Amino acid sequence: MKEKNGPTMGTQRNGITKESLILSVDVGTTSIRCHVYDKTAHVRGSATAELVPLYPTTGHVELDPDALWKGFTSVVKGAVQDAGVQMGQMKALGISTQRATFTTWDRRTGVPFHNFITWQDQRAADLVKSWNRSCTMKVSQAVDEGNCCFGTIDTWLLFKLTKGRTHATDYSNASSTGIFNAYQMCWSQSLCSLVSLPLSIFPKVENTDHEFGSTDPSIFGVSIPIMSVMADQQAAMFGECCYNVGDVKITMGTGTFMDINTGSRPHTSITGLYPLVGWKIGSELVYLAEGNAADTGTAIRWAQALDLFSDVKDTSTMAYSVNDSDGVCFIPSFSGLQAPLNDPKACASFMGLKLSTTKCHLVRAILESVAFRNKQLYETMLAETNIPITRIRVDGGVSSNDFIVQLTADLFGRKVARCQHREMSCLGAAFVAGLAVGYWKTREELKKLHSAGDVFCPKGAASQYTPILQSWERALRRSMYWYKQP
Question: At a CB cut-off of 8 Å and minimum separation 6, what does 376 contact?
């Protein structure tokens, strides 16, 4: 890895060399987290801000750009303060963001024209049908005047952090928008023409470890080089050190995202696996195939709001307190069903309720449904990619639930490793930024920093769950196409 900013690993002030550190921010679906990392990848300081989604109408999910910006700047300042260090000690900044969440803004003023439309938003399904019927789309006056910028969260943050000097994204984020051709590695001219979007509004696409500029000194008091911009799931893959073909990472957070490293070629799917750019660093281009389930943490938080349990930490114990779910099946589809079924009209549901059903049975059914969706995605990935799986790693907040991870290992018939680091997107963005400035030298060094955690080995034969899985799949089919087509 070429050093871009020289070999110095410390910042001199008054003749005293102070330790250099890496700053990394992850903009998730419900929170923004910032960590300050040292050379051992140890978290020296942290800060978190809540992101509150807006639901203007059924199926619409948005974020307030101003609230996101305030949250971003506050966690950066908070993490540095928590670390007990100075902003000038930050060697580089890495940014990981939720994907496919976008807005448009005025190039001259930086003021957004509308809220962020998030990746969970369902209005696109109806819009696509409308586009397919009419093949036209209205454009605003700003587009006509050449003053409209389009971008995902990373692009907008770069624009804000550099005071409008940078309108860019990286390949991992671009490939997640659905407007980027991952095969030709450029914005799709044909799709943009279809929906009347001029290519001029799109950001320039750069390598993942590109020097995207520096933060304006007015924001944090000093200028910090922005050395990586990365989509959150791709960043988690990099943080998990899944650098080899066949490496699999399962992030279980708000949703579940299962990714497999497919190497230098994108995977063309027939069941809805996404061909994504994992990262482009130097001349290396790595692709992933991804399957997702939108409602994982969402379903657990919903159950908590219904008072099925008071503390999320109790759910594993509750599930183990009963021998089975008493025939109850839960379908986690508040946002429809993704691969391999791909039904946006499916509904979330409980089926098989009895007078004997208790809260523990309901909780177990919810946790089982997460592992069942994992198995669906895993089998789809195996059948489609025909790539031998080398290892499986899990992360994300829901991965702290032992019941879910153990059942996943049982259903896969494979050992599953859970790292001590749970926030892999933040770590992955930090790793890329650190490599870019020579803070860390090689990926082998990063592998040694990858904290050992728990390994879950299969305890029972997957066949023991066959009848339960069959009932769950029957319930799944009955939940499909529930909402009427427009």
Answer: 340
Could you tell me the pLDDT band of residue 128, with boundaries at 50, 70 and 90?
Answer: low
* Domain contains 5: no
Cα 86 from Cα 267, distance rounded (Å): 45
Q: Is residue 32 domain-resident?
A: yes
Sign of the dihedral defined by the CA atoms of residues 373, 52, 349, 478, in that order = negative
Among 232, 263, 278, where does a domain finish? 232
Same domain membership, residue 143 and residue 255: no
Of 169, 203, 232, which marks where a domain is finished?
232
Triad 72, 73, 75: Cα angle to 5°: 70
- Beta-sheet strands, E only, within 225-308: 226-231, 247-252, 256-263, 274-281, 284-293
Min mean pLDDT across 185-189, 342-346, 458-462, 473-477 is at 458-462
Specify the pLDDT at position 122. Answer: 81
CATH code of the domain covering residue 346: 3.30.420.40
The predicted model scores a pTM of: 0.91
**359 inside domain:** yes
What's the CA gap between 349 and 246, in Å, rounded? 34
CA dihedral sign of residues 430, 435, 438, 440: positive
Structure tokens at 262: 């497919």
Task: Please give the pLDDT value at position 135.
Answer: 38
Q: What is the mean pLDDT of the chain?
A: 92
Instruction: Label residue 225 by pLDDT band (50, 70, 90).
Output: very high
Q: State the residue range of the domain holding 340.
A: 241-418+453-486
Separation in Å, CA 342 to CA 28, 253, 337, 481, 483: 23, 20, 5, 10, 14
